[in-house]
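Most newcomers find our protein records easier to grasp once they have seen one. To make this concrete, we reproduce a full record directly below:

===
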Amino acid sequence: TQGAEHVIEASNASRTMLMNLQTQSWDESLLDLFNIPAAVLPRIISSDCHIADTAPGLLGATIPITGILGDQQSALFGQSCFEPGMAKNTYGTGCFMLFNTGHDIQPSQNKLLSTLAWQAQGHTTYALEGSIFMAGAVVQWLRDGLG
């Protein structure tokens, strides 16, 4: 949109750790703690809404932007994990497991991250995430380091 809209999709907002998962809005106590003025933050929007159209000169035509989703959340959605209890694992530089917890926030008993998976058709789906940030990268390091 070339700056026409200052928005962030809900799953991406949740990953800033500044969004309150229950209210799905910026957490005022955290903003105060870190001295972040709420006015500088983007408006939180649903995953499936019409955000705007691309700027006319950018791609040769205006194209509607009608969906955004976070990185691992999009993998959970893309692998059809639509029901509570369904999970996916993604392997790359890191390894990321997401577990669909349905419409309720499930606090982890094992230090996993509670996160917003997506907001679609007026409903919010949550997930638990476990991350290993150096999975495939370690294999590459071993390969390159050991010759």
About this structure: Residues 7-146 form one domain.
